[in-house]
Structure formats: structure tokens, C-alpha cells
Specification:
By secondary structure, the chain is of the alpha+beta class. The chain has three domains: about 5-160, PAS domain (Beta-Lactamase, 2-Layer Sandwich); about 270-335, Helix Hairpins, CATH 1.10.287.130; about 335-490, Histidine kinase-like ATPase, C-terminal domain (Heat Shock Protein 90, 2-Layer Sandwich). It has helices spanning about 5-10, 10-65, 70-75, 150-200, 215-245, 245-265, 270-295, 305-335, 350-360, 360-365, 385-400, 460-470; strands spanning about 85-90, 100-105, 120-125, 125-135, 140-150, 345, 370-375, 380, 405-415, 420-425, 470-475, 485-490.
Length: about 500
């Protein structure tokens, strides 16, 4: 039976075939074992029989061998005529020379032709046994006896016939028992299959399978009936749901409308980003124009301190616009693969400390405490300007979202060839659904973060810079509040920008 037809066969046939195969293998192994044992047993029996004959004749042949009495030795060997299985014998002196030999008159050929004087066991269709001839424990010669295997083969044949008969009867009895026993396995399964067909074709959920025992099949029947109970309950629930469908059409329509609005919102992402950038540019621009006009009107009457304040506000607004333009340019260069990096040995401890110092004033305005924990180690192969830009982006993000009078932790950890920078704030954290989205360009988190503005470019640029250094940036929320932005780098530059 090919695999396809076997797959389509009934469970009853499959179980029968499996059990028959197991039964056949067991009987074949048993028959082989018994046959091997009987063959070995017969081999040892004939060896013992010939050895006993040699032990009896050996002492009697010692004197004729020592005194060279060939006739006396011939008369002794002639006694082997009474043993039908003995084909011949030969007596050898201590040097291995033939002293005398005996051949049964009815033997078709000389059994010793081409046989070594030391042969012991099966050879050339005969069985040979070599027995030493002793006088007072001293070997004075050897007696080699050759026996026919006819009787041996006859016993083996009778045993084989008996074994075949017994095995045949056992196989027939096993098959009868197998046919009866397999019904205990296939019966419940076939019954469940029939019930499944009724449920499928007639939609009759009231039928149940009959449990016949507490074994695994009983457990299967219980599970099948339990499944039918659940299907029946769900069918009733489905009917009720269909009856209520008309009342829920309007609700589904509203949900589809919301889904449509979300899809259209994705299409409007570019327009929204442009509007956001415009707002971010116009806000500092208004500040520049306002303070410039104010300074122009009051140039003659303003004292130097007030004038310096106005110019300071103009510079701050200009720097904000410059930062936004730089972010846009960096994003464009990263996407185009044209951003240039200058890799050299960088003292990362000094770089982190210098970057943190730049945010002391901004942190002081919100009463934030910058906690720095730096491991001491050597330099790394990196672009110092870009790494400082990356760290500034993370610190700016932390200062923006951290609540007043909270702490911001900056850590630098070294582990073998890997360097880790961490920036942890106590802000609202990042919504789980936006853990990866916040690193996409133009994306701004809406859940779990305050409305602090921004273009949504900073974190995307930070990740690209880290990846250009063979590393990455990940974010993890911490309890009870806050998030950790973790930057992993390699001491040796492991990554290049695409070309």
C-alpha cells in the first residue's frame, strides 16, 4: 500500500496493520533466536559425542602407537563401525605423521582429503574432532575423528519444521486475537468519526459518543463530548447573535468609519509634518522679529542690559531654527546615505561629561538633578561630533519630559568590547505600542508623554548615528515612572553608513 492510500485507509485497517507488523516482527525475531540456539546446541552435542568417543579410544590407542603395533590400532579403530555417523578416523604420532587411518566402507569418499590434521569443527561438509592420546599425562599422539552431518541436519530440519508449525499456529491465533482486540481501539474512534459526520452534515448537536472505559480512549471520548457541548452552546449563541445583528449594524458602521479615518490619517502624515515644521519655524521666527522690532523702536532709549537681553532672545530663537534645519538636513543625509563620519579615538568619559555640562543650565531651570555615573576605561573609535549630537538628543528629550524637581541619570558602562550609555528620566515613559515607533522619522508619541512639541526627528537621528557606529538605541520603561534610553556601541567601529 503506497503512502497516499495508507493515509486514506480507515483507522481499523491502520491499527490492524500496525499490530500485524509488530506481531510478525516479534515472531520472526523469536524464530530466529530459537533457530540460532538450536543450531548452536546441536553443534555442541555432536562435539561432545565425538569428544566422548575420542576419550574412550585414546587410552586404548596409546600402546599400539608407542610400540608401533599397526594391526592392534587398526582393530581398535574398526570398532567405530558401530557408529553410523562416523565416516573415518586417523591416528597421528607426536610429530604429526600419519600412523594409521580408518575409513567406513560405505563412505563415498575419504573425509580427510584436503583437511588439516589440526582441523577441529565444521569443514567440507563433515565435523572433525581432535583428541590427544595420553600416557601418564604425556601426549604421545592425536586422534582425529570425522563424522557425517546427516543426522545433525536431520535434527535441525525436524526442529525447523516443528518451529514453522508452532509459529504458524501462533500467528493464526495472534491474528484472531488481534482482530478482536483492535476493535477496542478503533471502535470508539470510528463511532466519534460517524458522530462528527452527522454534526457536519445534519447540524445535529444533540448526539454524543458512548464512553466504554476510563483509559485514554475514555478521556478522548469525554473531550469529544465536551467539545460538542461547547459547539452546541456556541451555535445557540450564534443564533442569538444573528438575531441581534440588525441592532449592531450601526455600531459596526461607526467602527468602519473610524478605521477609514485612521487610514486617511496616514495619508495626511506628510501634510501634518509640514505643518508641524512650519509651526516650529514660525515660533522662533516670531520671537526674532518681535525682539528685533522692539529693539529698533527703542534703540535710543534702551539701556545696554535690556539691549543684551533682546539680542540674547534673538540668538536663542535663531539657534532653535538652526537646530531644526540641522535636524532636517541630517535626516535627509541619513536617508540618502551621504552623511559623513570622521572616526578617530574618542575619550568617551570626557565626551559624556562635557555634554552633560551643557544641560546644567536647562536642568537648573526645572530644578532637575543630573546624576552622572561613569566607568573609567580607554578610548573608543567613533565620530565625537556625532556621538555628542546623539547624547544631546537623548538629554534634550529627558529634560523636556522630566517633571520638575526630579532626577535624570546618565550612565556610562563598559563590558569587554561593548560600551553602553544610558539616559534615564522620571517622566511619563513611552506607551508600549510606540516603543519602536518613536524612532521613526517625523513620529511623535501621543500617549504617555506631555505635549512638549518637537518635530519627531531627534530620536530617529540618534538611532541612525548609533547604527553607523555598529550599535543601536533601545528604550525601556521603568517602574514606577520614567524610561531608560540605552545606547550600545563597540570599542572598534563595527558599522558603516550605506553608500
Amino acid at each position: 500500500m503506497n503512502p497516499i492510500s495508507f493515509d486514506r485507509a480507515s483507522i481499523r485497517l491502520k491499527v490492524s496493520l500496525v499490530l500485524m507488523a509488530a506481531l510478525a516482527i516479534a515472531f520472526v525475531l523469536a524464530a530466529g533466536g530459537l533457530a540460532s540456539y538450536e543450531w548452536l546446541n546441536q553443534y555442541r552435542n555432536i562435539e561432545r559425542e565425538l569428544g566422548a568417543i575420542g576419550d574412550v579410544l585414546g587410552p586404548n590407542l596409546a600402546a599400539p602407537l608407542v610400540f608401533g603395533d599397526v594391526q592392534a590400532g587398526q582393530d581398535i579403530l574398526a570398532s567405530l563401525e558401530s557408529q553410523d555417523s562416523i565416516l573415518g578416523a586417523r591416528l597421528l604420532d607426536p610429530t604429526g605423521e600419519l600412523f594409521l587411518t580408518y575409513h567406513r566402507a560405505t563412505a563415498a569418499a575419504d573425509p580427510f582429503v584436503g583437511v588439516n590434521v589440526n582441523t577441529h569443527g565444521l569443514s567440507g561438509g563433515c565435523f572433525f574432532v581432535v583428541t590427544p592420546v595420553l600416557i601418564d599425562g604425556e601426549v604421545v599422539g592425536r586422534l582425529q575423528i570425522a563424522a557425517s552431518l546427516r543426522a545433525y541436519r536431520g535434527r535441525i530440519k525436524r526442529f525447523a519444521l516443528t518451529l514453522v508449525f508452532v509459529m504458524s499456529v501462533s500467528v493464526l491465533a495472534g491474528l484472531v486475537l488481534l482482530i478482536r482486540m483492535q476493535r477496542l481501539i478503533s471502535g470508539p474512534i470510528e463511532e466519534m468519526a460517524e458522530i462528527a459526520r452527522q454534526v457536519s452534515t445534519r447540524k445535529n448537536y444533540n448526539v454524543r459518543a458512548r464512553k466504554r472505559g476510563d483509559d485514554e480512549l475514555g478521556t478522548l471520548v469525554d473531550g469529544f463530548n465536551h467539545m460538542l457541548d461547547q459547539v452546541q452552546r456556541r451555535e445557540h449563541a450564534l443564533v442569538r447573535a444573528q438575531r441581534e445583528l440588525e441592532g449592531r449594524v450601526e455600531e459596526r458602521t461607526r467602527e468602519l468609519s473610524l478605521a477609514k479615518d485612521e487610514a486617511e490619517g496616514a495619508v495626511r502624515a506628510k501634510s501634518l509634518f509640514l505643518a508641524n515644521v512650519s509651526h516650529e519655524l514660525r515660533t522662533p521666527m516670531h520671537g526674532v522679529l518681535a525682539f528685533a522690532k522692539l529693539g529698533e523702536k527703542r534703540a535710543d532709549s534702551l539701556d545696554p542690559a535690556k539691549t543684551a537681553h533682546y539680542f540674547g532672545q534673538i540668538v536663542d530663537a535663531g539657534n532653535r531654527m538652526l537646530g531644526l534645519v540641522d535636524d532636517l538636513l541630517d535626516t535627509a543625509q541619513l536617508e540618502a546615505g551621504t552623511m559623513e563620519f570622521e572616526f578617530q579615538a574618542v575619550d568617551l568619559v570626557h565626551l559624556v561629561q562635557a555634554t552633560v555640562d551643557q544641560f546644567q543650565s536647562a536642568a537648573h531651570e526645572k530644578r532637575l538633578e543630573l546624576v552622572v555615573d561613569l566607568d573609567a576605561f580607554g578610548s573608543v573609535n567613533a565620530d565625537s561630533h556625532r556621538l555628542m549630537q546623539l547624547l544631546r538628543g537623548l538629554l534634550s528629550n529627558a529634560v523636556r519630559f522630566a517633571p520638575e524637581a526630579s532626577k535624570i541619570h546618565v550612565r556610562l558602562l563598559a563590558d569587554g568590547d561593548e560600551v553602553t550609555m544610558e539616559v534615564q528620566d522620571e517622566g511619563p515613559g513611552v506607551a508600549p505600542a510606540e516603543i519602536e515607533a518613536i524612532f521613526q522619522s517625523f513620529h511623535q508619541a501621543e500617549e504617555g508623554r506631555t505635549g512638549a512639541g518637537g518635530t519627531g526627528l531627534g530620536l530617529g537621528i540618534c538611532r541612525e548615528i548609533a547604527r553607523a557606529h555598529g550599535g543601536d538605541v533601545q528604550v525601556e520603561n521603568v517602574r514606577p515612572r520614567g524610561a531608560i534610553f540605552r545606547v550600545t556601541l563597540s570599542r572598534q567601529r563595527a558599522g558603516l553608513l550605506p553608500t
